């Protein structure tokens, strides 16, 4: 027999379940990032195979400019560091500082996106020009989508940390930890992407 | 600055859920409800997919295309394959039984992420409806469940795009499910329960979920690229724009070969639960079973290109993939011998559950043998894209997974409902299915060896008679569903009450009432460290007293 009260009891059990295993959600997030990383791995494999077996024009015709993507790489690496500072500040219970670092991180992410837009406009090729162009935009675009989501996530965390009654505290820092992990992941992918796309 | 944490109202609202029968039609977070939702939903799609299969077989009773136009045949074929794989087998062997059983097996009250779990299920009905409705709107996809370009780029776009969206949703659903299973098995185990004491189905689901998490995203990425080719006219897989179709095949099979293990590994796990119970013997060779599952996971990830022997694959690659594929016979063979050894000398009660499991073993061995044959390049070149391949994979997916799904339903129905299924109807169901299945698919080996191509509505008249035999078999299989459906509905209301543990089984889900209470166990979950300890004397120390009394 199912009664409302037994359902309630179950709900309590469930709540205590996640409390007993604080690292459970982080574990779930890591599994998700593994899956997400496999999507990128598939794209990279496709790009490298195309490059190996199909005559790709750009090596001969286009010379990719390095300054902007290098700047982008620096922006993301620095933003990883600033996010790290935000986490440290939270641990030291310096909420204001934490918020400031979060905002700076989000700003760096947005700067990356602006700079990438700028790069797109200056490139001599468009999405459908040829196979090389298509894979280039697919890879950088898919990554840009991740940066966009990450920036939004950081802003949400910042908003939560800011709001009075604070949803982000030293006891409840999962949102911040999750966003940080995701952000480091996105940065790591960019480094691989930078090497494969621009340097190889 | 000190901040007080407000009460988390969101989480306590979990409690307000409909009760009784109504909860099966609601957005429930209970793993048992979600499991049965998966099962019923999957079965409805199975009936639809089966109707489409019957249409295909009717068309093929005559060598000319008279029952439906050719492009409709292609749509029906594509829908059939897609529905059977993505909406029936994968969700049921994973989602349905996984959700129902895994929390019991690890001694938890629910899955690790109950809400994610519900979301994963509720992605399925809309995706399926969308897929099927595309047939009525602008014509469904026509390029088969593999959606190979350039065909999938050149056939009408609308249906193909709907197909891609639907498969993406289903892929998302299975990734969410996979993450949930991994977290539940590794992190939610009851203290004191070691990994090597888990029931075998947990191991199978762990292996399967690893495959899901590693390979499904690659399919998703590939389909996104394919949709760009269709919508934005990029040329990733379009040779006329400088693209490369072979890359699509590599990426596609990097998912779809593991997908066959996503369909059969959970089935292996389920059989390993069912055989010991009904033969009253411990599962033979537990540790080797575990290692062979992990071996299959690793090998399953590296053999995908055996689907591409005729795609201009260079010789070194053919050699590598032939050898790697042939190696899978080793862990699979180990499992086969372990099942037989489990049965050997056991006190077998020949009920419907074990009949379907034994049917599985027989069919799967036949499918496995033709699989090893297909891994040999010269043979594959001869029968590629013929009915031999169709016969082979139906022996695996139907003779393997579907037989196990039925076996599992007979085995766990008393758990789900507290009622027994009718054994006589069950045996009629088994006989019709087994005879129909072999009548339908065994002759297709002959058709393929003699050169009848797959995926065509018209064929050389010399194949007419054998095709008609095959269609009669399909008819029997369609008929076999009737006693089953009657049995399931009738028993739910009029069935004999089963008691809590009609099979006297030792796995944890049976150590609670049938159907189980919402919190799975009243009080502490029992610690079952020997789920297969039949006939072993140390048993009494491991199993709670209430259960021993129950057994007398
Ligand atoms: C109910 C009994 C079934 C019958 C009579 C049946 C019959 C058929 C037939 C005649 C074809 C066409 C083969 C071709 O022209 O290439 C086919 C294809 C296929 N079937 Fe079934 N089938 C059945 C069940 C299943 C099940 C349970 C699955 C589960 C995975 C399945 C998966 C497929 C797939 C993947 C294809 C290939 C579709 C394609 O090439 O795009 N079938 N089936
Ligand atoms: Cu394969």
Automatic annotation (TrEMBL), chain A:
Protein keywords: Cell membrane, Membrane, Transmembrane, Transmembrane helix
Gene3D superfamilies xrefs: Cytochrome c oxidase, subunit III, four-helix bundle
Transmembrane portions of the chain: 26-48, 68-86, 98-118, 138-161, 181-199
Gene: cyoC
Family listed: Belongs to the cytochrome c oxidase subunit 3 family.
Superkingdom: Bacteria
Subcellular location: Cell membrane
Native species: Prochlorococcus marinus (strain SARG / CCMP1375 / SS120)
Pfam families attached to this UniProt entry: COX3 (PF00510)
Keyword Transmembrane tagged: yes
GO molecular function annotation: cytochrome-c oxidase activity
Protein name: Oxidase aa(3) subunit 3
Topology in membrane: Multi-pass membrane protein
Gene Ontology biological process terms from the UniProt entry: aerobic electron transport chain
Residue stretches making up the Heme-copper oxidase subunit III family profile domain: 27-200
Cellular-component GO terms for this entry: plasma membrane
Predominant location: membrane
UniProtKB/TrEMBL annotation, chain B:
Ranges of residues in domain Cytochrome oxidase subunit I profile: 15-529
Signal peptide: none
Gene3D superfamilies: Cytochrome c oxidase-like, subunit I domain
EC number: 7.1.1.9
Keywords: Cell membrane, Copper, Electron transport, Heme, Iron, Membrane, Metal-binding, Respiratory chain, Translocase, Transmembrane, Transmembrane helix, Transport
Catalytic activity as recorded in UniProt: 4 Fe(II)-[cytochrome c] + O2 + 8 H(+)(in) = 4 Fe(III)-[cytochrome c] + 2 H2O + 4 H(+)(out)
Organism domain of life: Bacteria
Transmembrane segments: 33-56, 76-97, 118-141, 161-186, 198-231, 251-271, 283-307, 319-341, 353-375, 395-413, 425-446, 466-489
Gene Ontology process terms (BP): electron transport coupled proton transport; oxidative phosphorylation; respiratory electron transport chain
A Pfam family per the record: COX1
InterPro entries assigned to the protein according to its UniProt record, in alphabetical order: Cyt_c_oxase-like_su1_dom, Cyt_c_oxase-like_su1_sf, Cyt_C_Oxase_1, Cyt_c_Oxase_su1_BS, Cyt_c_oxidase_su1_bac
Membrane topology designation: Multi-pass membrane protein
Protein's name in the database: Cytochrome c oxidase subunit 1
Source species of the chain: Prochlorococcus marinus (strain SARG / CCMP1375 / SS120)
């Amino acid at each position: 027999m199912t009664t409302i009260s037994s359902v309630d009891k179950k709900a309590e059990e469930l709540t205590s379940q996640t409390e007993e295993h604080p690292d459970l959600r982080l574990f779930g997030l890591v599994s998700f990032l593994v899956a997400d990383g496999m999507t990128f791995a598939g794209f990279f494999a496709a790009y490298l195979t195309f490059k190996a077996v199909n005559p790709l024009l750009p090596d001969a015709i286009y010379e990719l400019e390095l300054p902007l993507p290098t700047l982008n790489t620096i922006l993301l690496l620095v933003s990883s560091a600033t996010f790290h500072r935000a986490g440290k500040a939270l641990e030291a219970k310096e909420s204001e500082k934490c918020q400031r670092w979060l905002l700076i991180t989000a700003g760096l992410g947005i700067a990356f996106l602006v700079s990438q837009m700028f790069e797109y406009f200056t490139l001599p090729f468009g999405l459908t020009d040829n196979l090389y162009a298509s894979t280039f935009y697919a890879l950088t675009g898919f990554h840009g989508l991740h940066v966009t989501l990450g920036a939004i996530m950081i802003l949400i965390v910042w908003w939560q940390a800011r709001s009075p009654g604070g949803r982000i505290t030293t006891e409840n820092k999962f949102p911040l930890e999750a966003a940080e992990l995701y952000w480091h992941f996105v940065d790591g992918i960019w480094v691989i992407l930078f090497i494969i796309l621009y340097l190889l | 600055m000190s901040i007080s944490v407000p009460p988390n109202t969101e989480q306590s609202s979990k409690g307000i859920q409909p009760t009784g029968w109504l909860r099966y039609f609601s957005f429930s977070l209970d793993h048992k409800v979600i499991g049965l939702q998966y099962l019923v939903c999957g079965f409805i799609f199975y009936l639809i997919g089966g109707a489409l299969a019957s249409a295909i077989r009717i068309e093929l009773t005559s060598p000319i295309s008279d029952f439906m136009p050719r492009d409709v045949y292609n749509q029906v074929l594509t829908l059939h394959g897609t529905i059977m794989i993505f909406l029936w087998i994968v969700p049921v062997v994973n989602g349905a039984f996984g959700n129902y059983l895994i929390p019991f097996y690890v001694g938890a009250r629910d899955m690790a992420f109950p809400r994610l779990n519900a979301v994963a299920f509720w992605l399925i009905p809309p995706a399926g409806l969308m897929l099927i409705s595309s047939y009525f709107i602008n014509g469904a996809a026509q390029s088969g469940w593999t959606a190979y370009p350039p065909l999938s780029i050149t056939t009408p776009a609308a249906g193909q795009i709907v197909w891609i969206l639907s498969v993406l949703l289903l892929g998302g659903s299975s990734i969410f499910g996979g993450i949930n299973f991994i977290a539940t098995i590794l992190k939610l185990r009851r203290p004191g329960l070691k990994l090597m004491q888990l029931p075998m189905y947990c191991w199978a689901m762990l292996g399967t979920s690893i495959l899901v998490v590693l390979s499904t995203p690659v399919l998703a990425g590939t389909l996104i690229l394919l949709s760009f080719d269709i919508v934005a006219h990029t040329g990733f897989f379009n040779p006329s724009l400088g693209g490369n179709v072979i890359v699509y095949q590599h990426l596609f099979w990097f998912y779809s070969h593991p997908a066959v293990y996503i369909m059969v590994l959970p089935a292996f796990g389920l059989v390993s639960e069912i055989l010991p119970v009904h033969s009253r013997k411990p599962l033979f060779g537990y540790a080797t079973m575990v290692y062979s599952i992990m071996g299959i996971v690793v090998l399953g990830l590296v053999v995908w290109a055996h689907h591409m022997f005729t795609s201009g694959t260079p010789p070194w690659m053919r050699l590598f993939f032939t050898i790697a594929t042939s190696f899978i016979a080793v862990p699979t063979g180990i499992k086969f011998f372990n099942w037989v050894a489990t049965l050997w000398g056991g006190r077998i009660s020949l009920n419907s559950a074990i009949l379907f499991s034994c049917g599985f073993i027989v069919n799967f061995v036949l499918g496995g043998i033709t699989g090893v044959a297909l891994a040999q390049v010269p043979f594959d070149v001869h029968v590629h894209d013929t009915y031999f391949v169709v016969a082979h994979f139906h022996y695996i997916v139907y003779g393997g997974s579907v037989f196990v799904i039925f076996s599992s339903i007979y085995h766990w129905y008393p758990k789900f409902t507290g009622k027994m299924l009718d054994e006589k109807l069950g045996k009629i169901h088994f006989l019709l299915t087994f005879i129909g299945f072999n009548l339908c698919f065994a002759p297709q080996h002959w058709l393929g060896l003699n050169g009848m191509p797959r995926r065509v509505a018209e064929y050389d008249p010399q194949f007419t008679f054998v095709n008609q035999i095959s269609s009669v078999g399909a008819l029997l299989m369609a008929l076999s569903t009737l006693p089953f459906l009657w049995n399931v509905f009738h028993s739910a209301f009029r069935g004999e009450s089963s008691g809590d543990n009609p099979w006297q089984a030792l796995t944890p889900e049976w150590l609670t009432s049938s159907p189980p209470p919402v919190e799975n166990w009243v009080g502490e979950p029992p610690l079952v460290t020997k789920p297969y300890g039949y006939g072993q004397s140390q048993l009494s120390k491991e199993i709670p007293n209430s259960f021993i009394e129950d057994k007398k």
